Amino acid sequence: MQRIDIEERPDWRARAEETGFQFHTFDGEPYWDESAYYQFSLQQVEDDLEGPTEELHQMAMSLVEDIAGNAQKLQQLGIPEPFWNHIYNSWQNGEPHLYGRMDLSYDGKGPAKLLELNYDTPTSLFETGFFQWVWLEEQMQRGLLPGHADQFNSLQDKLEEAFGRLSLPQPFYFSSVANSVEDKGTVDYLMDIATQAGIDGRYIAIENIGQADGQLVDEEGYYIQGLFKLYPWEFLVQEEFGKVIKTSSTLWLEPSWKMILSNKGILPMLWEKYPDHPNLLPAFFEDSASQPLQAGWVRKPLLSREGANIELLTDAGQRVVENGPYDDGGFIRQALAPLPKFRDNRRQQDTYTLIGSWVVGDSAAGICLREDSSLITKDTSRFLPHIILD
């Protein structure tokens, strides 16, 4: 695993905007960064990332049955009791799931370590599945990358296959909050893939979903029989129409049983069931008897996004904290697997790199890389492309 500088495509910003990638830059700072790329060997991808991703996914899925009907465990995860039956029925009825992303710490040498599962509302989808593949093809055409370079990236193809395989009600709605350019761009991309698979996809902003006769309805009052939502379940159940979720016949993507896997409480539960697994880190629930955070450990909220409210203490005693709004629920502690450090020659600073490994259905489907000057990856962390080359 190497970080290698490369010349940017001169027209990449225009190419991004032509294809709907409007969020390539945040507040004047690049989110998409192609001034460098990461290179992996095929063995690293197959043995250290692809295989472990599918094994970790199966291990996580094996826990859902244990938890969905267990009140004590659902309570431990902080899931509201009024939705326990919905989650149980969703799992028992075999409601389908589409995708997820697990975040890994991996330096190219040892076993990748699972940091968390983003199994409800994972983003970085367009830039992983489409834009970094376009970057690879164009940099090979320009002669800046060898013509036999490859990429661990079957995300778009597998999503289209999945949409073609799923039996979804028609029309099928896709939803996000209206004022998020990133979320809207991600949902537009996913809806386009679904359309190519033959789905009659229609967009509706979360804010415009209504209710009538115990059902969710669109702006014209038609029942929403199927809905993909890029909006967290833990927020949905708090919304005004949250009670209608329990009475509606809407098929959800992701299903409500994903509330179990997207919760960081799944990490200590995984460790309890699979202790000493090489891709897991020791983890436990924090309680009133927990001691102050020790060196070599991380404190994470059960529910948080983009690194918010995470605190870690390195082996050397350096404390790194990211503030945020998720401080009113439970926390877990997880042993620290520091992100690998590379040198960013353009910015003349060290950078820390996180690997996101995608799962579509139950298959590994590619990776994305985010880097930051901090050990905590945030919403402002840059996205860099990668290649496979031996």
TrEMBL record:
| Species name | Cellvibrio polysaccharolyticus
> Could you tell me the superkingdom of the organism this chain comes from?
Bacteria
What's this protein's name? Answer: Glutathionylspermidine synthase family protein
A molecular function (GO) held by this record is: ligase activity
Q: Which UniProt keywords apply?
A: ATP-binding, Ligase, Magnesium, Metal-binding, Nucleotide-binding
Q: Glutathionylspermidine synthase pre-ATP-grasp-like domain: which residues?
A: 12-388
Q: Does the keyword Plastid apply?
A: no
Gene3D superfamilies in the cross-refs: 3.30.1490.330
